[in-house]
Amino acid sequence: MADLSTNDEAVAAAIEAPVGRGEPILQVRGLKKHFPLTQGILFKKQVGAVKAVDGVSFDLYQGETLGIVGESGCGKSTVAKLLMNLERATAGEVFYKGQDITKLSGRALKAVRRNIQMVFQDPYTSLNPRMTVGDIIGEPYDIHPEVAPKGDRRRKVQELLDVVGLNPEYINRYPHQFSGGQRQRIGIARGLALNPEIIICDEPVSALDVSVQAQVINLMGKLQEEFNLSYLFIAHDLSIVRHISDRVGVMYLGKMAEIGTDEQIYEHPTHPYTQALLSAVPVPDPQARAHRERIILTGDVPSPANPPSGCSFRTRCWKAQEKCSQETPILAIPTVFQGQDTPAAHFSACHFAEEKQVVPVH
Amino acid sequence: MSIIDKTAAVPAPRAGADYNGPLLEVRDLHVEFHTRDGVAKAVNGVNYSVNAGETLAVLGESGSGKSVTAQAIMGILDMPPGKIPQGEILFRGEDMLKMSEEERRKIRGRKIAMIFQDALSSLNPVLTVGYQLGEMFRVHQGLSKKDAKVKAIELMDKVKIPAAKARVGDYPHQFSGGMRQRIMIAMALALEPDLIIADEPTTALDVTVQAQVMDLLSELQQEYNMGLILITHDLGVVADVADKIAVMYAGRIVEQAPVHELYGRPAHPYTRGLLDSIPRLDQKGQELYAIKGLPPNLLRVPTGCAFNPRCPKADDICRTEIPALAPVTEQDGADLPGRKSACHFWKETIHG
């Protein structure tokens, strides 16, 4: 996707701002992360690279939720780590309020990180079993003491517990005394401690039971309104992503295949991968069983160490033609839809984009 | 709690069988685990039956006892600490719990096979998949190594693993998640069993692969006219493949119904809550309905109906009396075949 970084401005201009939202709070441009593959023990020689993230661009606006979906191995979690600066990007920029944070280090990075927090997938391993809940939620204050003066911390932690719907008296308990859903609430409270503007959620509910999932999703929705948070919501469950997201990006093999509002992606998908993904989701409605068209993809996701030439989806695509193996499709409004005022006119990286309805509309 | 399920519509049994009842029938099964903290009652009187060619989905959250029931059927429950104080598991009319270990071994794998959730940890990492598949034939049918390998390749073809011949000597880690699950399915199918128990067969897989695997499973089920017990927590998967559903909560079946009926008109507040709490792909709703509270601790199951602390309809009677799994009827008293609910207020729930 080298072409992308050259027409950055065009992309930036064309990614429409959702109605009623101002400046993007986070702008990601041509983000890449290649993990080197080495051979040899003493003299390590690079023999290739796993292109985990290979040129991803998107915007995140104040107060919105951007969902990122994709199969395992598509690079969605690496994107999260890059945004948190837990991994250093190989190339590309991440602008937080106009400032490129991929190049930052030391104090400047620390200051930015205060505003971008993360909620992790597994509430069983992301909380230190030897720390009390109060210490876990209060730990961010040790790193950023300017947010809460020492004497005030206990009260602040109790407030946070209350905000996420836990009893403030649980402050001295340990993680093992809580259920999965409660632990995820603790994880969210920790993410909220520093009053961040952006929360990156990496599969926050996939480890939880169905009945508890709804509680956590509702809590996240409530907190977003209360604190005007922006969420980057990474998940593989397309139903949950639709529920919580304002816009959705679909990733495949380190690249963004399609991005648009939830209506555009779910009701008017134009990329064949999105269509296949949506049609494969089991719908909890046995009536739909008979008349639902399902696109069953063959094979597995190719290795990101050796992605196919041209369009990376072509090896599993039923529309693939000669052109797809030679030319990498650009993430843009497909030419067939350009200038049209239809929901199908959104960013889709396919040479042969065409609208296909796969989700029944009510 | 000893209402015996005899209401399921019985389709023609497998051709050639002289036995006429359901393929598998579980009657009033209890399983408990003796731990240092006390007795955990994981299964408290479960009744269900499966016929040949039929798919029964057992739906429940973690800790509801759905997997423990399956393990009891397979006879792979760890005993101790597990214990089956009460109940019967009838396979073709014979109680497996009364059989000797030798007799059970003849059924296990040959008549009833199981597909586990996590293929990577269920396969032996130091043996080739060909060896592990062939083991079924070597142990149960006494085939030679060479013949077993030929059979293994056949099986891998059957579950549509590409280049089976070349891959028969590969190790589990060389396969992707979906392919590994296919190997698990192949292993379960090896001896053409009458019944397959699939415990969350697609939970660890991506949706596109999940669709492939579920398709394969139902295709093979039809081909062999097998009974299938599908254990899952995913209401979507159930809607796609099941014929009838048993919803479990705290070791009990709280509702039983044919698949269309259950989704259309749940007769138990727990089922209704579950259905309302899942986000839908085809709808963008407002706030999700959330069942308040948490699933109960099995060491301290609430008195009366186990769901009462979380139930919006709970009344005094729910806190004292355990509701029996009783047939559900239309408002005018007409029968609803195959439908049962264990709720004091099922009338209000289904017709309200």
Description:
The complex is a heterodimer of chains A (362) and B (352). Chain A is an alpha/beta fold and 362 residues long. Chain A has a domain at 2-61 and 73-106 and 235-348: P-loop containing nucleotide triphosphate hydrolases (Rossmann fold, 3-Layer(aba) Sandwich). Chain A contains 13 helices and 11 strands. In chain A, the strands form 2 sheets. Chain A has a 7-stranded mixed sheet, sandwiched between helices. In chain A, strands 2-1-4-5 form a 4-stranded antiparallel sheet. In chain A, helix 5 runs parallel beside helix 7, helix 6 packs across helix 7 and helix 7 (180-192) runs parallel beside helix 8 (210-227). Residues 1-20 of chain A have low confidence and may be disordered. With 352 residues, chain B is an alpha/beta fold. Chain B has one domain: 3-Layer(aba) Sandwich (Rossmann fold). Chain B contains 13 helices and 12 strands. Chain B has helices spanning 66-74, 101-107, 119-122, 129-141, 145-158, 164-167, 177-189, 207-224, 235-241, 259-264, 269-277, 316-320, 346-351; strands at residues 24-35, 38-50, 55-59, 82-91, 94-95, 112-115, 195-199, 227-232, 244-249, 252-258, 326-329, 335-341. Chain B has an 8-stranded mixed sheet, with helices on both faces. A 4-stranded antiparallel sheet of chain B has the order 2-1-4-5, covered by helices on one side. In chain B, strand 11 and strand 12 form a beta hairpin. In chain B, helix 4 (129-141) crosses helix 5 and helix 7 (177-189) runs parallel beside helix 8. The longest helix of chain B has 18 residues, at 207-224. Chain B starts with 23 loop residues before the first strand and ends with a helix. Mean pLDDT of chain B is 85; it is low at 1-16.
